[in-house]
Each structure stands twice: as C-alpha cells, then as structure tokens.
C-alpha cells in the first residue's frame, strides 16, 4: 500500500513539473497569458479540431488589447505572440541576426529533402541557398515563365468552353489545384500535363501526395534524383557551392508544395470574393476587356503588370485571406525585448526560444484596416496603399525570410483571373455557402465545405 501511495505521489510530482509548472512561464516573467490546458497548452482546441488555427490566432491576438505581445504555449513550450508592428519590424528585420531561423516541424535527419529545403534550412545554410535561388525569380525569369503560365491558363479555360452548359458548377479549389499543378509541371519540371482533361494523371495524383508530410519518399518515385528542375537550374560556374541533386530536389519539393496548395487557396478565396461582390467583379472585367483590346488580342507581361485594379483585388484577397494564419522565428542567440511602457518588464529570450507573428489577426485588426471583414480593393489604390504599414500587411511573410516565390505566385493568380474573366462570370450557385465555414482540420486557411461556384459564359 505504501508503495502505491509513493508511486502515485511520484507520478503527481513528475506530472506537475513536466506538464503544469511550465505553463506558468510567462506569468513568472510578467507577461500576460491566457488559460492554457494541461499538456496541450493553448493548442488544445486546435489539436482536437474544435478551433481552426486562424481562429486560435485571432483569439490569442484579441486576448489583451493594447499590449505589444502575449504569452502562449504550444503544448508546454512557451512561444511569445508579437502584436505590435514596430516590435515585429525590430525582430524580423532590424535584429534579424538574432532570429534567422524558423521552427522545425519535422525531426532532423528523418527525411533529407525536408532537411534541405529553403523553408527549413537554418543559419548560413539558408543564406547560401537563398542567394543561389534568388536569380530564379528575377524579372527576366518571370517574363519567360509568363509565356508558359499563359499557355496553361488558355488551356484551362478551353476545357470549360468545350462544355455545353451555360453555367458550369465547379469546386474552385479542385480546379485551381489542377491548374497550379500544370503550371508547376511545365515551369519547374518541363512536363506538359492537362489535369482537367486527364484528372487522374500520375503527375497530379502523386504530386498531391507529395504535399503531405507523410509522402516525402513518394516524391522521389515521381521526380527522381536525376531530374533537375528548369526553374532552379543554376550554372556551377556562377556559384561557389555545388548543389547536389538532393539539394535541388528538396527546393523543387517545397516549390511544388507551396504552389500546389497555397496559391490555389488564394485563387479560391479571390474567386469567392468576386462571386459575392459582383460590382468589384464587373469593374475588374472592364479592365480585363480594355487590356485585351490594348494588347490586340494577345496578353503581354508588361500589360498584365499595368493592370492596377487587378493588383488591388489580389492584394485585398491576400489581406483578408492570408493562407498562413501566422509565421514564426526562432531566437538564435540571446536577446532582450526592452520595455517601452512602465507596465512592461525586460523579456529575456534564450537561444531556441520562439516567437509567433500573427498574420491573420493583424490583417483583420480594425486598428489597421477599418471594417476589416469587408472586401474592399480600394484599400490598395494609389492614394491609400502608401498609408499601409508594411508590418501590418504580410501575406508572403516578413523580413529576409519572406516567400522567395511571391512574384511567381502573383503572376499565376493574375493570369488565371484574366483568362477566366475574359470568358466567364463567376457567380454563386445553389451549393455556394455564404458566408463559408472555415475548416478546423487544416493548418492552412481554407473553406470547410469547399468553394462551390459557377462559371457563366459571357458574350465578348
């Protein structure tokens, strides 16, 4: 009996020090925090799919109005949520040398491709790879990619023009994922596929699996080490460090994953907003028609970049629906956040400490964007966009570790909507959910029941 009592007491002590006491970390340092769950911290509702990650980020952001930061816990690990744009600038840009890395989501050495891609590389390895890949996204490279994306977009709309239906009901995420798949296939791998005409083509099906964390080994069966993606080809004469085929495949994988899911999500949200805001769609349609006429019936790279309203619409879609609810940084050497008010205390972050940058909540904050739930492209007109603090608008992340492929992503989105609106009107249909429900099962921001909309032919 005594042994049982001692065993229970020992288990209770271990549980307290392992699962309870760590959840007082921020309180002990004078930082306001919420009411974390034992073991799960603040991620309990998200872990059990009771709350989406974007909803969690929003509730954490709103917990303590007027503060520059808020203490959170991922399980028992303390993570500081940054709320103040100036503090975000300080950590992500000014003092970047203290916060050069992202958190690791997959244990190191589990998969060589995940270890070596740009998103997860750390320190000097990240810097070297970023320098090598940056030339792949210059204006000249984007111009050459433009031709290939236009070909994919033209082929995309032709698939629907062939249908003998006045209104074609489609799930936008599905068709946009197929489009981005085809774009990546041709621009990055030199492979031409038509994922609408051939919905079960091997590149699409295996590529879809490759975007899953559990499917990294499958990617090798698709692309193989022997395949060198065109987009990431770098002459050895121009770099000091030789890239192995594994290095190149790793970058192709993260490029594929980002394009396959995040870009198609942005397209889906944009289509939804155009469908429920017909006045905005009609104005954009006029700009499309005017540009088409000016180009003499052939869209050019320069003409697309001159489309101001197109840029305003896409910018607002990224403001309202950023794909990632938040990004993060890891402290790589000891750092102190100095107080700016009498209520604050110095916060000492040790090496390995992590901070959250809550993109979705900041984009939805009335302080920065009045009436934030309204879709209003005028926020980004010539008069207003200059007043936007860049650290309150972060659809592609912030600082040196922002998304390297942002220009490529924007090019894809603008081209596909140019071709869709040239031939179709995007409208709500019976299956359209207004407003839609945010999916609680996904880390990324997406609709729980899909983006069901209609493509209605227009007379040109």
From TrEMBL:
UniProt xrefs under SUPFAM superfamilies: Cytochrome P450
InterPro entries hit by this protein: Cyt_P450, Cyt_P450_CS, Cyt_P450_E_grp-I, Cyt_P450_sf, Insect_CytP450_Detox
GO MF terms held by the record: heme binding; iron ion binding; monooxygenase activity; oxidoreductase activity, acting on paired donors, with incorporation or reduction of molecular oxygen
Protein's membrane topology: Peripheral membrane protein
Keywords: Endoplasmic reticulum, Heme, Iron, Membrane, Metal-binding, Microsome, Monooxygenase, Oxidoreductase
PROSITE patterns in the cross-refs: CYTOCHROME_P450
CC terms in the record's Gene Ontology section: endoplasmic reticulum membrane
Subcellular location: Endoplasmic reticulum membrane; Microsome membrane
Residues that coordinate or bind heme: 403
Keyword 4Fe-4S among UniProt keywords: no
Required co-factors: heme
Recorded superkingdom: Eukaryota
Family the entry assigns: Belongs to the cytochrome P450 family.
Name of the molecule in the record: Cytochrome P450
Upper taxonomic lineage: Eukaryota, Metazoa, Ecdysozoa, Arthropoda, Hexapoda
